[in-house]
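Troubleshooting log. The previous structure file for this entry was overwritten by mistake, so regenerating from the original sequence record. Sequence copied from the archived sheet and checked twice against the printout by T.R.
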Amino acid sequence: MPALPFHQIDAFADAPFTGNPAAVIPLDAWLEDGVMQAIAAENALSETAFTVGTPDDPEADYALRWFTPTVEVKLCGHATLASGHVLMPVGEDVSVRFRTHHAGILTVERSGDSYALSLPAWNMAPRALPTLAAGLGGNPLESYWRDGGYSLFLFPDEAAVRALSPDFAALRKEGDVMLIATAPGETSDIVSRVFVPGGGVDEDPVTGSAHCLLTPFWAARLGKTRIDAVQASSRGGRIGCALEGERVILSGQCRTVIEGRFLL
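Regenerated output below.
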C-alpha cells in the first residue's frame, strides 16, 4: 500500500491548538489532481499543501500547490508557512523558495523559532457588493473588490466584526469568493475574520492570503508599514505584517502537532 509522509502543522500559532492547521505532504512527483483533491477532502482542513522538489529550477527549491476540501486555490499563506517549517533543515536559520502556479515565487525564512513569509501585496478597489454584504451580515461602512474573488468589508470596530454570523448557505451560492471583514483592533492595530464558504471553508482560522490585501489597505489608512494583526476566529491567531514595496512580509510561528504516513 503506497504511503506518503504526512505532517499537520499549526501555522501562525504561538502554541498547539491555536493558529490555522495545515497538512503538508512532500511528494517525489505530482499525484493526479483528483487524488490530491481526495486527500485534501479526507484531511478536512482549510488547506492541504503538496510539494515536489525542483532541482533543475534556479529560482525555486520546491513547487507548491494547495487544496481545500473542495477546490485547488491560487494562494494560501498559512500552508506555505507550514511547508517551510516542514522542509527546512532542523536548527538552521535558512530560507526555502516555492514556485506556484498563480502567485509566482514565495519565500519562507526562519530566524530562531519565527518565520517570515513573503507574499505579493494586492490592492483593492471600492465596489458596492450588496449580495455579499447581506450574506455576511452586520452593517459594513465600505466594501472593496479584487478580481479573482476577493472582497473586503470595513466595519466600525472590533465588536462588530466579532459579532458577525454569516448566512453560509446563501454565500455558497455566490461561488468561490473570499469575504474579509475587518476593523481597527482593540489590542492590536487591526482585527479581521475571513469566510470562504464557496471554497469549502466557512470560516478560516488564520488566513495569510487575506493579509496580502489587509496589509496595504490598512498601511494606507494608518500611515505606517508595520501592522500588528489579529484574526478573530475561534482558534485565533496573531500575524506581524510589513509592507515592503510590492511585497507583504508576514511573520509568525509554527507548531508541529501530527507526523505520520498517509496510506493510499
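The radius of gyration is 18 Å. Archived copy saved in two places this time.
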